[in-house]
Design brief:
Number of strands: 0
Shape: flat
Structural class: mainly alpha
Number of domains: 2
Order of helices and strands: HHHHH
């Protein structure tokens, strides 16, 4: 997973020009604002200028980097309780669900 993170950061920094050699905490020197919950418009503009194939790869790399840090994401106790309840119900009722092809066919019939 570390490889995915390095790949993601490499792709991201490559889109940001002169900042690619700076540590993230110094990107503000290049006018990049990492404060708040949103990525700045200039970063989004740079990312959106990538070809679709590169953007998909970037998202995959980003998702892999998130998966590598799953312990860093706190789980709400209520969500954990609900997940445990659903798992217990699943194990108790023995219903395994539908095959993917059957579910897809059911969706097609409703369209």
């Amino acid at each position: 997973m570390r490889k995915a993170r390095a790949s993601f950061l490499g792709r991201l920094t490559a889109t940001l020009g002169a900042c690619e050699t700076l540590p993230i905490d110094r990107w503000a020197r290049c006018g990049i604002d990492w404060t708040g919950d949103a990525i700045s418009a200039s970063i989004m503009e740079n990312l959106n200028s990538l070809p679709i194939k590169e953007r998909i790869k970037l998202v995959q790399d980003l998702w892999d980097s998130i998966a590598a840090d799953t312990g860093a994401v706190p789980v709400d106790p209520e969500e954990l309780a609900e997940a445990r309840k659903r798992l217990a119900t699943y194990r108790a009722d023995g219903v395994r669900g539908d095959l993917a092809r059957d579910a897809a066919e059911s969706v097609r019939r409703t369209l």
